[in-house]
Amino acid sequence: MRNIARCVALVVIITLPAFAQSQATPPDRDVVFQASTIGALLDGVYDGDITLGELRRHGDFGIGTVNGLDGELIVLNGAFFSVTADGRVHLLPPAVSTPFAAVTPFQTDRVHALRDVTSLDVLKQQIDAVLPTTNIAYAIRVTGVFTQVKTRSVPRQSRPYRPLAEIVESQPTFEFENVAGTLVGFRLPGFVAGLNVPGYHLHFLADDLSGGGHLLECAVEQATVEIDDSRGLFVALPATEDFDASDASQERKEELERVEKDSK
Fold first, then answer.
1. Does the structure show a pLDDT above 90 at 199?
2. 88 and 149 share a domain?
3. I need a surface site. Which of 19, 34, 105, 125 has the fewest CB within 10 A?
4. pLDDT at 24 exceeding the cut of 80
């Protein structure tokens, strides 16, 4: 059965309603467990009904955000950190909730050296060059001493919630030089559009916890990338009124591009 499963490019399992039933862990370690959808987050669904403690049952590595859009979430080695709009890093307790996150039990399938990475685009190109296919999900961990890093976070929101694309127009950004740290995130196939971010979605965390956030740009002379191949995507949809009322039919490509890139 396991050999048959590995012939499938990507298995998407959507549970309805999700979080009340998400006690069952996906059956294979090579699964990305996702809470809610990027489309709902773009639409302003910032209150979730899954806790970080529950999320931890499904993975020890990943990214997302925090209830009320209160910072960028980074999950590394089983610990949950948020980088808030003031640039500070916070270690989060299990009771905190998230409206959107993706995690996986990270186990390295391949390791490669990166050299002369002059930009985020070059980083993506070097990683893409060693991937056997772009039709599955990959968890990506990059470690090194970065010559330059630019990140962002978003301020905590209060109701009535505005769409995410409006909020990032005034997002605070942070810049670092010669900082040791880790990039945490995923590279997902193009056909996940609407569920998650197609392509690369990376967050940064400094080793000394001096800062981090959603990655906008970076450069590093030498770094190591560890890649975890995942052929399953388990999507848990929130059982909330906000999610049920959101417009899941909209085409969000332009909004997502504005959110993912530097708006300044």
1. yes
2. no
3. 125
4. no
